[in-house]
Amino acid sequence: MKDQLEAIQKEALEKVTQAANLKELQDIRVSYLGKKGSITKVLKGMGKLSSEERPIIGQMANAVRDAITTSIEEKATSLEQAALEKRLEEESIDVTLPGRPVNIGGPHLLTSIVEEIEDLFIGMGYEVKEGPEVETDYFNFEALNLPKNHPARDMQDSFYITNELLLRTHTSPVQARTMQEYEGNQPVKMICPGKVYRRDTDDATHSHQFTQIEGLYVDKNVRMSDLKGTLDKFAKKMFGEERKIRLRPSFFPFTEPSVEMDISCKVCHGEGCSVCKGTGWIEILGGGMVHPKVLSMAGYDPKVYSGFAFGMGPERIAMLKYGVSDIRGFYTNDVRFLKQYHKA
């Protein structure tokens, strides 16, 4: 039995030395030190030994067990260290490599245009107001001198939700709401940017959803010359100091008189070209003096108060200012288009 234990120790230590991984080492542990292992089988035969031999064999079996255990633990430590070193080598980072570029986003072109216009008018003392995009028929039309069955309603083909609710066709309802809020006894000086909706066929210059910025100034002794001066300053700020403006008679139900404003063509400087269709002028916005009926419905006495209003489309302004040929570029989220106007 002594020879048997010595043979087990020698064999076990050789296998431990040859073990290539922790799984093989665990198999060796079970094979020699487990409940059904080789040493246990030897110890089961100690009953046949004499009383003098039993303590000697028992002591030898413990020594063999300890030697195999120690050898397995040392081998396990060695294998774990080797595995760690291999992992560190595989996962090493070369700090000298250049970093990966980070793509930084920026404001959308329309957002930049709207903010630029807001900053301009805030500098002139205007407030920025907002209102609901789902609007009542009253504020969208009737409060703006467009009663039911008025033929001018056909100019704004609308998305109705119910008979009295619709997606707003312009931001003018915000003006009507603000005037009513002020109860006709204080001046109003505001702009209202936001999305508007009209039934339209989407193409290079039209969209069923677009952006508007409308302005309103109501006070005592407000004149058409004030409107012209305001729009002239706007045009020069947005398109350059060399821009000239002209006002043409037009019609809007909520202003009287009404005008369309043109700016001189920046391509031909008023000489006439394909961009301005040979006229030297490009239409940019509409406006006029607030209709007395609109003032009255909002609670203002038209004999005391007067005012002007104007409305513009930031998409059109952006298209003219930056040479954008297709309005759909603002809404299709093509990064190649958007990054052209990203100011780092």
From TrEMBL:
Residue ranges occupied by any Aminoacyl-transfer RNA synthetases class-II family profile domain in the UniProt entry: 109-340
Keyword line: Aminoacyl-tRNA synthetase, ATP-binding, Cytoplasm, Ligase, Magnesium, Metal-binding, Nucleotide-binding, Protein biosynthesis
Catalysed reactions listed for this entry: tRNA(Phe) + L-phenylalanine + ATP = L-phenylalanyl-tRNA(Phe) + AMP + diphosphate + H(+)
Subcellular location as annotated: Cytoplasm
Necessary cofactors: Mg(2+)
Pfam name, any one: tRNA-synt_2d
Cofactor info, note text: Binds 2 magnesium ions per tetramer.
EC number: 6.1.1.20
Protein family per UniProt: Belongs to the class-II aminoacyl-tRNA synthetase family. Phe-tRNA synthetase alpha subunit type 1 subfamily.
Name of the molecule in the record: Phenylalanine--tRNA ligase alpha subunit
Gene: pheS
